[in-house]
């Protein structure tokens, strides 16, 4: 069972962490493996990648003719792949050496068509004292209470997910209306794939917590202001999903109930019992981030152009 690992990047500013991601893919214990590197319309990055990794027989390098966004780039990577399984890792992720082996075991032992693993936070600076683990999804990591091992879920996180390639392409890959592109910080690009797989194949994404990717979290990701900004765009993204896939929303109601019935009261109790400021800060963050998500959703309701304009298929760009 050959596996293709797709890694996308777009700027020299992230090249060092991108290199770590690629090297972790090449260092996997599993074989046969192919690594597909998609550069999103940056000739400088493309030339550097070709010089550094182009000599590997199992590496494919492609440069989009222009910046097309993460969703287009990932689907392009799957199209260029030759593996039966296509796996995705972010350019700031570092996979454990048995990452792909664990994904493959899940396909061999079950009838899964998609597998998602655990995304662990790797803070460059110290984790902010105010940041609650229930909101790790804001930084692309697996949050507290996400899912049980072996549970079928709607979707996992983009830095640790794989699909049977034919299934992924059959449902159209990633939706170009989701995922970050330019100054549009739309999230939730994994959800449409999971929704369409459920509709077409009647199956969810299998969650396997032993398949681990460490997600590098730069210092700015721990800034309160940035997290509020991220929360706002998460809310906007929920509106995009509502327009694209009416009636196919996730477990937002259950999440909110857990926050206000369990998480907040627990922080208040700890603040009083332990006379500590940390749980109080987390309580404030929970309220602030939830409010920002709501504002982002309301902002989406006011926008007539909530979706991106569809684009014509790209003519073939340089690949090696």
UniProtKB/TrEMBL annotation:
Membrane is among the record's keywords: no
PANTHER family: GLYCOSYLTRANSFERASE, GLYCOSYLTRANSFERASE 2-LIKE DOMAIN-CONTAINING PROTEIN
Keyword Transferase in annotation: yes
Organism: Halorubrum vacuolatum (Natronobacterium vacuolatum)
Protein name: Glycosyl transferase family 2
InterPro entries named among the record's database cross-references: GDP_glucuronosyltransferase (IPR053553), Glyco_trans_2-like (IPR001173), Glycosyltransf_2 (IPR050834), Nucleotide-diphossugar_trans (IPR029044)
Domain of life of the organism encoding this protein: Archaea
Residue ranges occupied by any Glycosyltransferase 2-like domain in the UniProt entry: 4-169
Keywords linked to the UniProt accession: Transferase
